[in-house]
Amino acid sequence: MKVDVLTCLALTAASFVATVTGGRSSNRRRHKEVFLGENSKFKFGGRIDYKLKRQDSTKTLLIKSEQLLRIEEHDFAIRPGFGGSAIPVGIDVQVESIDSISEVNMDFTMTLYLRHYWKDERLSFPSQTNQSRTFDSRLVKKIWVPDVFFVHSKRSFIHDTTMENIMLRVYPDGNILYSVRVTVTALCSMDFSSFPLDTQNCSLELESYAYNENDLMLYWKNGNDSLRTDEIVLSQFFIEHFHASSGLAFYSSTGWYNRLFINFILRRHIFFFMLQTYFPTMLMVVLSWVSFWIDRRAVPARVSLGITTVLTMSTIITGVSSSMPQVSYVKAVDIYLWTSFLFVFLSVIEYAAVNYCTTLEEMRKMRRGKIPSTFNASQAMAFDGCFHDNDIALTTFSRMAPTLTSDPLAVPSQNCDPRPLEGTRLRRQRSVRENVDLLVNNSYMIDSYSRLAFPLSYLLFNTVYWSLYS
């Protein structure tokens, strides 16, 4: 009897344990099925229950926006109003900055806000408050947007810090505002014939890449007021004027396209080049004239001064040329530098002529006996590097020869005109050869004339140069 009671109790306990264990395992299986079922519904696009919406609210809002705009119901690979008239797309630009202007590469870099305006009735939605909805770049990839590009651009990119700088605003009636912040480097054909006293005209051109004028019409949204600029300050240029314009571009294979222009005029600041190029050049030219006041027998002083100014001018010319593009025409700065280099070079040639004429003068005096045969010019220069004419004993002028008569055998009578007194000279016009001989015999006169001719000529050149280019 006791054994039967014990057996019944053992069976009852075993069944209770089995029931508890089975209930737990069934509950685990049930939760697993529910979890898998929810994931499968989310994966295959089924209905999303309330719990899942609370877990991922961002995706839920995006799906609501897509449903509101009926994105899945339309083919946004084609433009709005396909098959009808061209869709008008208004453009509005705000220039934030001009980052750099390169003369060597002939381009400029600009950062701007590019805004597009158009109407797509496929994106219209009902709204009681008539309020627009704003989206970021994630929705832009799912709708149609104008394919505007920059003509003659070398590089461009959309800013992506901290997110892509793209804004899409949709109004209930289907009007759309699409704004993007972009930096573009574009070509600017510059003319350096007046550099650095030049003015450059640059433009940034916008155009649709795929749609010609029959499908898309680009225009400035607010006319001339469509182009706005912030306060832009450049290091080497002053922006004189910003203005917008439009035109047409023709391609032989695809037809006519609307094109918009952002034009701006740049005037170069001259003060930087005055300090770096013009003032040093002027000083080198004036420094070369110092040799005209140095004794013509001071060969080391005058030669070293001339060579120094020539080498300095060569360095200035090389420095300016290295920062400029290799153009095939002459620039204004080239005219000034090479003319100044010519003045410096002529000052060296002037001393060569003076030294040569002085040597000829000494040789003639030595032949005439005016210089002692024991005199050595190189020894006279050894002490101070100068040769002094007063060290040589020169004879006085001889009396003029008597005037010749018509009869060479006749004896001059007492009634003839008296001979010229000592110290008087007969004046007559000298020929070119006689003038040259006079300079050769008086080499110091070359320095005297150069002291006046060089400054006056350089002053005349500067007057003509600055009146033409400034």
Please sum up the structure shown.
By secondary structure, the protein is an alpha+beta fold. The protein has helices at 2-43, 50-55, 57-69, 137-140, 271-288, 299-322, 332-368, 377-380, 432-441, 444-469; strands spanning 87-102, 107-119, 133-135, 148-151, 153-158, 166-170, 175-187, 199-208, 216-220, 227-229, 237-251, 255-268. It is elongated and about 155 Å long.
Explain how this protein is built:
The protein has helices at 2-43, 50-55, 57-69, 137-140, 271-288, 299-322, 332-368, 377-380, 432-441, 444-469, and strands at 87-102, 107-119, 133-135, 148-151, 153-158, 166-170, 175-187, 199-208, 216-220, 227-229, 237-251, 255-268. The termini are far apart. Helices cover 39% and strands 23% of the residues. It is elongated, with a radius of gyration of 48 Å. Strands 1, 2, 3, 5, 6, 7, 9 and 10 form an 8-stranded mixed beta sheet that branches. Strands 4-8-12-11 form a 4-stranded antiparallel beta sheet, with no helix packed on it. The protein has 470 residues and is of the alpha+beta class.
Task: State the major sheet.
Answer: 8 strands, mixed
Run of helices and strands:
HHHEEEHEEEEEEEEEHHHHHH
Contiguous runs where pLDDT drops below 50 for at least 5 residues: 24-63, 379-388, 391-398, 400-416
Rounded radius of gyration (Å): 48 Å
Please tally the β strands and state the result: 12
The percentage of residues in β strands lies in 15-25%
Mean pLDDT over all positions: 79
Distance between the termini: 132 Å
Secondary structure: helix percent: 25-40%
What's the helix count?
Answer: 10
**Helix-and-strand structural type:** alpha+beta
How would you describe the shape? elongated
Oligomer: single chain
